[in-house]
C-alpha cells in the first residue's frame, strides 16, 4: 500500500506544475465510438422536441444569396504568409475575371472578416489577363450577409467581361478547421512548429479571399503562395516550375501552381508547411517529418482506391486532374476534406503505423480515404447546384466509402460493415418527428453548415444503396456515368441524377419498373419527405398463402397519421426455400398505404422481408411470424442470412422501444445469440445490451441482467483467444473478438478479467506493448485493478506517443482503471500545463474526462470527487470550457441509478452552485427521476419480469 501511494503521489507531483488556462473548441467528425465508453440513448420524449414538422421545401432568406448579375470565370489569387514565425496575419491580392449577366453598376462577392484595402476595375487585356485600370471602386461589406459590394461609376453592359482586383488582409484562424487556419506540432526535440492550411467547405473560402462563394459559381483558379524558403507549399494542382525568390525578402519564395479545372470555390485548397513527402505514381502524401513512416499505407491505399473508383465509374480521375495529394494536418480532429487534388485529413484518419495502430484504425483510414476519393466524382467533378442537394455529395461518398474500400481490398470485408454502421445509424436519427428530408433548402452560413448531418451522410447513403440494389449494378453504373458525363464541371440537382438513372433504365431494363412509374417518382418519395417507413407484414395464414403489407412512418416516440406514401421496394424469402440473394427482378413495390400479396410461403414456415436489409425501412410482423422467426433462430441461425439476423435484432429492439412490440420479443429473440458467430448480429444487439445495462446497473435487478448476458456469451466466448492474435483472423473476426471481450469483462466474466489482466502484466514484465489488434481490450480490462506501476507504464506510453489514434486508444484504456487515486491523477492531466503537457491536444483533454465517466461507475465517482473541489472546478472551466462542465454533470446524471448515487449527485450540484446554469441542474435531476421512474413503466416492468424469470428458469428461453 505504501508503494502504491508513493507511485501515485509521484505521478501527481509530475502533473502538478503551475497551470495556465486556455480554451479551444474541440471538433470531431466520423469518430468511431469506443466499445468501452458506454453510450446513453436520449429519452424518447427528448426526441420529439418542439420544432414544426418540415414542409416539402421551406422558404429561406434569399437575401443571403448573391444577386446573380455577374459570374466568375477565373481567379488569380496571391497570398503571403509568415506562418513559420507563428504570425497569424496574411495578406493577399485576388484578380477575378467576371462576366456581366445583367446590366449593373455594382459587383457583389463574399467577404468574411477580411480587411479590404483597395479595389480596382480593369479591362480584360487582349490575349487574357488584367488590362488597363478603369477605376478604383468604392466598397462596403454587410456583416450579416457577408456581401462585399463594389460600386462602379459606369453601367456595365450584359455580356461584357472585366477584371476586379482586390487587395486585402486577414488573420489565420486558430485550429478550428475553418477557412485559412493555423496548426502546429512538436518536433522530435520538443520544439513547436507551425503550419497553415485551408478548409473552405461549405462557406469559408470567403474568409481567405473575396470570392463568389456559392457552389454553382465555378471558375478556374491560378494560385501563388509566398512563404518562408525552408517551407513548401502544396495546392490542388502541381507546381508550375520551381519556387522563385521573393524580390522583397531573401528569406521568402513564391510557389506558383498550374491552373485548375472549373471548380467551386469551396474546393480550392492549399497548405504551407515544413512537411516531408512520400510519392508513388501520381500520388503523394504530406505529413510532419516525425511521422513519415506512417504514410506508407495511406499512399498505397490511395492508389488502389482511386484506381478502383476510376474503373467502377468508367471515368478516370486523371482525365481531369494530373495528380492527387493527401495531407495529414495535426490537431485537426478526425475530419477530412475532399478538395480536388489535395485531400486534407486529421492525422488519426490518415496516418497508420502497423506496430501500434489497431485494425479499427486501419479500417477507418481505408474507408475515409475511400469516402474522400469518392467525392472526386461526387462533389468535385459534379457539384451540388445549391447546398439543398448536399446529399448528392455526402450520400454517394458514404455509400462508396464502404463499397470502394471493398473493391480495393476484397479481403477486408468492409462492405459487411455498411448495414450496421450506416443503415442502423441512419435509423436512429431519422426516427425523430422533427428530422429534415434529404432535399432541404438553406441560406445563412449556419443553416448551410447544419445540413452536414446524419441525413446528408448515413440516410442518403442508405437510400442510394437501396436504389443501387433495386435497379441492379449495370443499370446503376450506366446511370451514374450518364449523370456524370452530362453534368461534368457543372452543378446538379436531384432531378439530374434521376434523369441519368431513367436513361439507363430505358437503355438497359425498360420493363424493370412498374409501367408509367419514373425514377423521379420513386426516389422523390424518399428524398423530399422526412423519415422512413415501417413495413408491417400481416400474414393471413389461409389457403392462399397471402400477406397484407402496410406502411407507416416510423417514429421512435409516437405514432402520427400521415398521408405520405413511400414507394417501398420489397422482396422476401421463406423458411421452406430460403434464398437471400436480392435481384432487381425479385422486387415488388408497395405504392399505397396497404396491399395484399401472394407469398407462396407455407403457413408453418417463417417469412422475412427485405433480404440482406438493402431496403431503408424497418419490418414488423404479426405475432405468429415473430414466433416462427425466434424458433428458427434458436434451432439453426445459419438458415437466415447474417445481415437479416442483424436486421431482426435491430428491428425488434427498436420496435419494442417505440411500443410496436412487447419488449419480451427482442429479449427472447436475442437469446439465440448464444449460437451466433457473426459480428453483424452481435453488434446490432449492442444497442439493446447497452440500454439494459445503463438502466439496470446499480439496481437490485442488475444480477439478473448479468445472468442473461453471460448466457448469451456462454458458447461464443470460449472459442475466442481474447489475449492473443492469430495470423488468419479477418477484420470481422477481430471486431467480433473485441465486442465479446468487452461484454464478457463488463458483466464480470472471471476468465475474461483474469486473462486480460495476465496479458497486460506479461506485456509490462517484458516492457513490450500489447499487440495493437487486442490492445483496446487488454489495456482497458487489464487496467481495471492494475498496480500503480502498470498504470504509470501505460501512461508513459501515452505521453511519449506521437500518433494521435494510438494516444486516443491509450486515453480510453487509462480511463478504465477503477482505482480512485489512479483516476484522480489521470483527470489532473486534463488540466495540466507547462512543457510536460505541450503535446496534449485540446480534444484529448476533454476526452480524458468523458472517457473516465464513460468507462465505469467508479469513473463517474472519480469525476464527482474531482469536481467537488471548488478550486479544481475553476481550473476545469478555464481549461476545458463551460460546456465541458455542463456535459460532465449531465453525463453523471445519466449514469445515476440509485439513491446513494443520487445523494452524491445532489451534493455535487449544491457544491457547484452558480458555476453551472440552473437549467443544467434541473435537467440533471429530471434525468435521474426518469431513470427511477423507468421501473414503473410497461417497458421496465416487462424487462425486469423477463430477466427475473430467465435467471431462475433459463431453460425456458
TrEMBL record:
<dbReference type="InterPro" id="IPR014782">
    <property type="entry name" value="Peptidase_M1_dom"/>
</dbReference>
<keyword id="KW-0449">Lipoprotein</keyword>
<keyword id="KW-1003">Cell membrane</keyword>
<keyword id="KW-0645">Protease</keyword>
<keyword id="KW-1015">Disulfide bond</keyword>
<dbReference type="InterPro" id="IPR042097">
    <property type="entry name" value="Aminopeptidase_N-like_N_sf"/>
</dbReference>
<keyword id="KW-0472">Membrane</keyword>
<dbReference type="GO" id="GO:0042277">
    <property type="term" value="F:peptide binding"/>
</dbReference>
<feature type="domain" description="Peptidase M1 membrane alanine aminopeptidase">
    <location>
        <begin position="297"/>
        <end position="526"/>
    </location>
</feature>
<feature type="domain" description="Aminopeptidase N-like N-terminal">
    <location>
        <begin position="72"/>
        <end position="267"/>
    </location>
</feature>
<feature type="binding site">
    <location>
        <position position="394"/>
    </location>
    <ligand>
        <name>Zn(2+)</name>
    </ligand>
</feature>
<keyword id="KW-0325">Glycoprotein</keyword>
<dbReference type="GO" id="GO:0006508">
    <property type="term" value="P:proteolysis"/>
</dbReference>
<dbReference type="Pfam" id="PF11838">
    <property type="entry name" value="ERAP1_C"/>
</dbReference>
<keyword id="KW-0482">Metalloprotease</keyword>
<dbReference type="InterPro" id="IPR024571">
    <property type="entry name" value="ERAP1-like_C_dom"/>
</dbReference>
<feature type="domain" description="ERAP1-like C-terminal">
    <location>
        <begin position="606"/>
        <end position="911"/>
    </location>
</feature>
<dbReference type="GO" id="GO:0005615">
    <property type="term" value="C:extracellular space"/>
</dbReference>
<keyword id="KW-0479">Metal-binding</keyword>
<dbReference type="GO" id="GO:0005886">
    <property type="term" value="C:plasma membrane"/>
</dbReference>
<dbReference type="InterPro" id="IPR001930">
    <property type="entry name" value="Peptidase_M1"/>
</dbReference>
<dbReference type="GO" id="GO:0005737">
    <property type="term" value="C:cytoplasm"/>
</dbReference>
<dbReference type="InterPro" id="IPR045357">
    <property type="entry name" value="Aminopeptidase_N-like_N"/>
</dbReference>
<dbReference type="Pfam" id="PF01433">
    <property type="entry name" value="Peptidase_M1"/>
</dbReference>
<dbReference type="InterPro" id="IPR034016">
    <property type="entry name" value="M1_APN-typ"/>
</dbReference>
<feature type="binding site">
    <location>
        <position position="371"/>
    </location>
    <ligand>
        <name>Zn(2+)</name>
    </ligand>
</feature>
<dbReference type="InterPro" id="IPR027268">
    <property type="entry name" value="Peptidase_M4/M1_CTD_sf"/>
</dbReference>
<dbReference type="GO" id="GO:0008270">
    <property type="term" value="F:zinc ion binding"/>
</dbReference>
<keyword id="KW-0732">Signal</keyword>
<dbReference type="GO" id="GO:0043171">
    <property type="term" value="P:peptide catabolic process"/>
</dbReference>
<feature type="active site" description="Proton acceptor">
    <location>
        <position position="372"/>
    </location>
</feature>
<keyword id="KW-0862">Zinc</keyword>
<feature type="binding site">
    <location>
        <position position="375"/>
    </location>
    <ligand>
        <name>Zn(2+)</name>
    </ligand>
</feature>
<comment type="similarity">
    <text>Belongs to the peptidase M1 family.</text>
</comment>
<dbReference type="GO" id="GO:0070006">
    <property type="term" value="F:metalloaminopeptidase activity"/>
</dbReference>
<feature type="site" description="Transition state stabilizer">
    <location>
        <position position="457"/>
    </location>
</feature>
<keyword id="KW-0378">Hydrolase</keyword>
<keyword id="KW-0031">Aminopeptidase</keyword>
<dbReference type="GO" id="GO:0016285">
    <property type="term" value="F:alanyl aminopeptidase activity"/>
</dbReference>
<dbReference type="InterPro" id="IPR050344">
    <property type="entry name" value="Peptidase_M1_aminopeptidases"/>
</dbReference>
<dbReference type="GO" id="GO:0098552">
    <property type="term" value="C:side of membrane"/>
</dbReference>
<protein>
    <recommendedName>
        <fullName>Aminopeptidase</fullName>
        <ecNumber>3.4.11.-</ecNumber>
    </recommendedName>
</protein>
Amino acid at each position: 500500500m505504501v508503494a502504491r501511494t508513493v507511485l501515485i503521489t509521484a505521478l501527481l507531483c509530475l502533473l502538478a506544475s503551475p497551470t495556465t488556462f486556455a480554451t479551444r473548441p474541440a471538433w470531431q467528425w466520423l469518430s468511431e465510438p469506443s466499445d468501452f465508453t458506454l453510450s446513453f440513448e436520449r429519452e424518447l420524449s427528448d426526441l420529439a422536441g418542439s420544432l414544426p414538422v418540415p414542409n416539402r421545401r421551406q422558404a429561406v432568406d434569399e437575401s443571403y444569396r448573391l444577386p446573380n448579375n455577374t459570374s466568375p470565370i477565373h481567379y488569380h489569387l496571391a497570398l503571403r504568409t509568415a506562418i513559420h514565425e507563428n504570425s497569424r496575419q496574411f495578406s493577399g491580392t485576388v484578380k477575378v475575371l467576371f462576366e456581366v449577366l445583367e446590366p449593373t453598376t455594382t459587383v457583389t462577392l463574399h467577404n468574411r472578416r477580411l480587411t479590404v484595402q483597395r479595389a480596382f476595375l480593369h479591362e480584360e487585356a487582349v490575349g487574357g489577363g488584367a488590362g488597363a485600370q478603369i477605376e478604383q471602386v468604392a466598397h462596403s461589406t454587410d456583416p450579416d450577409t457577408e456581401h462585399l459590394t463594389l460600386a462602379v461609376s459606369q453601367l456595365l453592359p450584359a455580356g461584357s467581361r472585366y477584371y476586379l482586383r482586390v487587395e486585402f488582409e486577414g488573420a489565420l484562424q486558430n485550429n478550428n478547421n475553418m477557412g485559412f487556419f493555423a496548426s502546429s506540432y512538436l518536433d522530435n526535440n520538443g520544439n513547436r512548429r507551425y503550419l497553415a492550411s485551408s478548409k473552405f467547405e461549405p462557406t469559408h473560402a470567403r474568409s481567405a479571399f473575396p470570392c463568389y462563394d456559392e457552389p454553382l459559381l465555378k471558375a478556374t483558379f491560378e494560385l501563388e503562395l509566398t512563404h518562408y524558403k525552408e517551407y513548401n507549399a502544396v495546392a490542388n494542382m502541381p507546381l508550375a516550375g520551381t519556387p522563385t525568390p521573393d524580390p522583397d525578402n531573401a528569406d521568402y519564395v513564391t510557389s506558383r501552381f498550374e491552373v485548375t479545372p472549373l471548380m467551386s470555390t469551396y474546393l480550392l485548397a492549399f497548405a504551407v508547411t515544413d512537411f516531408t513527402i512520400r510519392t508513388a505514381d501520381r500520388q503523394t502524401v504530406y505529413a510532419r517529418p516525425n511521422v513519415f513512416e506512417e504514410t506508407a499505407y495511406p499512399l498505397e491505399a490511395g492508389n488502389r482506391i482511386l484506381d478502383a473508383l476510376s474503373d467502377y465509374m468508367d471515368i478516370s480521375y486523371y482525365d481531369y486532374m494530373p495528380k492527387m495529394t493527401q495531407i495529414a494536418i495535426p490537431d485537426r480532429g478526425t475530419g477530412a476534406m475532399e478538395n480536388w487534388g489535395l485531400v486534407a485529413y486529421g492525422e488519426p484518419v490518415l496516418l497508420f503505423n502497423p506496430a501500434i495502430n489497431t485494425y479499427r484504425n486501419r479500417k477507418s483510414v481505408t474507408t475515409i480515404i475511400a469516402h474522400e476519393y469518392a467525392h472526386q466524382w461526387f462533389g468535385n467533378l459534379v457539384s451540388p447546384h445549391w447546398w439543398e442537394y448536399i446529399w448528392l455529395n455526402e450520400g454517394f461518398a458514404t455509400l462508396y466509402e464502404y463499397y470502394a474500400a471493398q473493391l480495393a481490398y476484397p479481403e477486408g470485408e468492409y462492405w459487411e460493415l455498411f448495414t450496421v454502421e450506416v443503415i442502423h445509424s441512419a435509423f436512429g436519427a431519422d426516427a425523430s418527428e422533427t428530422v429534415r428530408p434529404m432535399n432541404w433548402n438553406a441560406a445563412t452560413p449556419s443553416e448551410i453548415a447544419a445540413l452536414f448531418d446524419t441525413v446528408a451522410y448515413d440516410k442518403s447513403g442508405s437510400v442510394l444503396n437501396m436504389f443501387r440494389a433495386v435497379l441492379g449494378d449495370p443499370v446503376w453504373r450506366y446511370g451514374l456515368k450518364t449523370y456524370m458525363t452530362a453534368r461534368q464541371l457543372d452543378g446538379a440537382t436531384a432531378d439530374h441524377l434521376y434523369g441519368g438513372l431513367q436513361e439507363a433504365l430505358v437503355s438497359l431494363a425498360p420493363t424493370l419498373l412498374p409501367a408509367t412509374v419514373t425514377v423521379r417518382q420513386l426516389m422523390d418519395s424518399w428524398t423530399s419527405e422526412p423519415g422512413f417507413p415501417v413495413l408491417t407484414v400481416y400474414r393471413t395464414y389461409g389457403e392462399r398463402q397471402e400477406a397484407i403489407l402496410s406502411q407507416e412512418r416510423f417514429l421512435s416516440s409516437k405514432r402520427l397519421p400521415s398521408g405520405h406514401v413511400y414507394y417501398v421496394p420489397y422482396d422476401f424469402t421463406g423458411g421452406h426455400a430460403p434464398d437471400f440473394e436480392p435481384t432487381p427482378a425479385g422486387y415488388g413495390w408497395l405504392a399505397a398505404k396497404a396491399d395484399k400479396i401472394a407469398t407462396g410461403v407455407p403457413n408453418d414456415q417463417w417469412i422475412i422481408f427485405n433480404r440482406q436489409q438493402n431496403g431503408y425501412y424497418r419490418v414488423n410482423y404479426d405475432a405468429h411470424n415473430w414466433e416462427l422467426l425466434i424458433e428458427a433462430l434458436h434451432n439453426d441461425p445459419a438458415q437466415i442470412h447474417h445481415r437479416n439476423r442483424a436486421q431482426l435484432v435491430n428491428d425488434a429492439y427498436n420496435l419494442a422501444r417505440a411500443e410496436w412490440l412487447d419488449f419480451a420479443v427482442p429479449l427472447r429473440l436475442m437469446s439465440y445469440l448464444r449460437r451466433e458467430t457473426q459480428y453483424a448480429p452481435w453488434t446490432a444487439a449492442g444497442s439493446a445490451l447497452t440500454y439494459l445495462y445503463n438502466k439496470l446497473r446499480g439496481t437490485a435487478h442488475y444480477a439478473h441482467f448479468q445472468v442473461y448476458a453471460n448466457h448469451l456469451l456462454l458458447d461464443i466466448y470460449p472459442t475466442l483467444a481474447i489475449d492473443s492474435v492469430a495470423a488468419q483472423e479477418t477484420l470481422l473476426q477481430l471486431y467480433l473478438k473485441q465486442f465479446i471481450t468487452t461484454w464478457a469483462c463488463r458483466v464480470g466474466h472471471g476468465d475474461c478479467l483474469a486473462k486480460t489482466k495476465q496479458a497486460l502484466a506479461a506485456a509490462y514484465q517484458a516492457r513490450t506493448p500489447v499487440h495493437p489488434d487486442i490492445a483496446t481490450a487488454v489495456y482497458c480490462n487489464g487496467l481495471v485493478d492494475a498496480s500503480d506501476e502498470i498504470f504509470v507504464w501505460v501512461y508513459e506510453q501515452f505521453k511519449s506517443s506521437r500518433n494521435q489514434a494510438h494516444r486516443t486508444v491509450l486515453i480510453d484504456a487509462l480511463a478504465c482503471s477503477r482505482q480512485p487515486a489512479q483516476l484522480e491523477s489521470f483527470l489532473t492531466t486534463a488540466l495540466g500545463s507547462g512543457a510536460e503537457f505541450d503535446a496534449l491536444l485540446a480534444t484529448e483533454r476533454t476526452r480524458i474526462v468523458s472517457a473516465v465517466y464513460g468507462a465505469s461507475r467508479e469513473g463517474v465517482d472519480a469525476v464527482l470527487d474531482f469536481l467537488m473541489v471548488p478550486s479544481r472546478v475553476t481550473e476545469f472551466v478555464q481549461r476545458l470550457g463551460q460546456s465541458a462542465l455542463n456535459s460532465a454533470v449531465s453525463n453523471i446524471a445519466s449514469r445515476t441509478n440509485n439513491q446513494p448515487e443520487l445523494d452524491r449527485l445532489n451534493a455535487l450540484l449544491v457544491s457547484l452552485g452558480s458555476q453551472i446554469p440552473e437549467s443544467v441542474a434541473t435537467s440533471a435531476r429530471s434525468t435521474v427521476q426518469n431513470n427511477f421512474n423507468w421501473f414503473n413503466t410497461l417497458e421496465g416492468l416487462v424487462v425486469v419480469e423477463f430477466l427475473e424469470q430467465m435467471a431462475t428458469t433459463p431453460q425456458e428461453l
